[in-house]
Every structure is written in C-alpha cells, then in structure tokens.
Amino acid sequence: MHIWPDCYPCITKMFTKIAGIALNDEQIIRAFIDRVEAKKPAAPHEFKITSPEIISRLWIIFSEISGIDDPLKEVKKRQNDIALQLYPLVKESLLKDQDPLSSAVKFSITGNAIDIMTIAAEQPVEEIIKKLEGFVLDPASAEQLKERLRNAKRIVFLGDNCGEIVFDKILIETIRGYYGSDVVFIARTLPVLNDATLQDALYTGMDGATRTIENGIQQPLPGTIIGQLPQPLQELICESDLIISKGGGNYDTLSEEKGLDGRISFLLQAKCRPYATIFGAPLGSPVILNA
C-alpha cells in the first residue's frame, strides 16, 4: 500500500513520541527536526512509496542525531514481559475453547494492542486478556485462512511487534499442533520502532516453538521488501505454500509485491482511517486478508 496523505502527520507524531521517550533532550529533538526539514525525506508530494520506507529514512536520521540504535529497547522488553505473563493464561483459555485455532489467530492479531496499553499505563493481566478476547474475527475470512492452513505444509511467518510475537508463538504452536506444518518465523535484523528483532524473538522463546531466523535486511525497515532479502530467504518465500504476514508495515510493503497472490494471508488491525477504508472494517478491528 502506497502512502496516504493521512500517513505523513501520523509518522511525524510517532517520531515525536519516540523522541520524547528515548531522548528527553530538547536540543537533540530540535536537531532531529531541523535535519528532517533540511533533507525532506518525507516530502508531502511523494506518494509512490510505502510508509515503512519513509520511516526507515527518518529512523536513520534519528539514530545519527541521537547516537542510539534501539531507542525503544526497554519499551520492547516491557511489552514482551507483559505478553509473557499472559502466555499461560491464553494457553489455558485455548484448552477450553471450542475453536482454539480461530482464537489463537485472534490473539495473534489483537496482541498488537499491547504496545498501546503498555506505553499508556500498566493494567492487570486479566483486564488485558478481557480486552483481547473482546475482538471479533470475520467468520468467512477466518474459515478461508483455516482452509489455507490445512493445505500448507511449508509456512513462512513474518513477525511484527514485540509483545504480539508472544501470541504469534501461541498461534504457531496451535498450527503445528493441528497440522504438523513446517513453520519458519522471521524477525527483523535491525531494530526499528518496536518491531521484534531476532534477539527479541529469542527472548520470548520463539525458537522453542519453531525455527526462528532474521530477515537479513540491512536497513531499519519496519516491513518486508522481498528484493532486499538474502537470496536463500527469497527462495524460501518463493517455495512456501503459505506466507502469514503480521502487521501494517508488512502489509504496506508486501501488498506492492508481485507473485504472492493466492498464498499470502495478512493479519493486522484496522488501526487507522486508510486501513479501515481499504478493508471495509471498523476502526481498531482485527483484519484477515487472504490475498
């Protein structure tokens, strides 16, 4: 998905928030803003580009100005720690569930909401569970995804944020329990935003659930551009029966790729007006797009 006009103010607000969390230094924040204005990496007339590519440009500038490669490191750990507290409760709830696979999909998508919760305030884990359980999947899309899972022996699972990767782990465990599928989980190589790197994924124990690797992209990109992946990973994706793509950044980049139709399922939330418009979904609702 190429960038919408809505995306520019959203990206600016996001970086202002990150700067406030990571720097707490007015001079550095001003230097960052001046550098961005001088380089114009996010020109308002540039629409043939995805949001992750704009974010990558800004992240490089931010890192150069601040001298910090992973400014949200502590935030990411906190998100993972809260999700790890929820892990046994979610697993227990799935044991009692009449449709554990659909519920595991729902938790995997809505776990993305943890980044909002943890930055805002601590909440009892029971309240977080109730919030996540309250989301509703589109039944037809969920059934189509399950049909794809039944027929897929080789699955590539592209991760997104910290926190939610714990629920991705639960989904992968559920998929492998049902179908015995060969699943490869792919995390980011370089830190960007609160996306999960390989180190973050290993911290959550993802490697205990399935084969876990990094994407090898040598820029801080909160998405996946297939041409930037190492050749072995490009071949892995090409040979896979199903690609499960988590989050908005992966959707933005991969929806512009060719040759994935019929074997990619996007799992994300309609977190903004462009997504709600494209998917015809209520704002904030979980989305399964079987492209």
Description:
The protein is α/β, with parallel strands linked by helices. The protein folds into two domains: 7-66; 73-290, 3-Layer(aba) Sandwich (Rossmann fold). It contains 13 helices and six strands. A six-stranded mixed sheet has the order 3-2-1-4-5-6, sandwiched between helices. α12 (247-254) links the parallel β4 (242-246) and β5 (264-269). α1 packs parallel to α3 (51-66) and α5 (100-110) runs antiparallel to α9 (164-179). Residues 117-121 have low confidence and may be disordered.
How are the elements arranged and paired?
Blueprint: H1 7-22, H2 26-39, H3 51-66, H4 73-95, H5 100-110, H6 114-120, H7 125-133, H8 139-151, E1 154-158, H9 164-179, E2 182-187, H10 198-203, E3 211-214, H11 231-239, E4 242-246, H12 247-254, E5 264-269, H13 273-279, E6 286-290
Parallel strand pairs: 1-2, 1-4, 2-3, 4-5
Antiparallel strand pairs: 5-6
Helix pairs in contact: 1-3, 2-3, 4-5, 4-6, 4-7, 4-9, 5-9
- What are the low-pLDDT stretches, counting only 5+ consecutive residues below 50? 117-121
Mean pLDDT, to the nearest integer, reads 89
Query: Biggest sheet, open or closed, and with what strands and sense?
Result: 6 strands, mixed
State the fourth-level CATH superfamily of the largest domain.
Uncharacterised protein PF01937, DUF89, domain 3
Question: Beta fraction of the residues?
Answer: 5-15%
Q: Specify Rg, calculated over alpha carbons.
A: 18 Å
Shape: globular
- The overall strand count is 6
CATH architecture of the largest domain: 3-Layer(aba) Sandwich
Helix-strand topology string: HHHHHHHHEHEHEHEHEHE
How much helical structure, as a percent, in the residues?
Answer: 40-55%
Give the class-level CATH name of the largest domain.
Alpha Beta
* Gap between N and C termini: 13 Å
Question: Which fold does the CATH topology of the largest domain refer to?
Answer: Rossmann fold
The strand line-up of the biggest sheet is 3-2-1-4-5-6
- Total number of helices: 13
Give the quaternary arrangement of the chains. Answer: single chain
Query: How many domains would you count in the coordinates?
Result: 2
Going by helix content, strand content and strand pairing, the class is alpha/beta
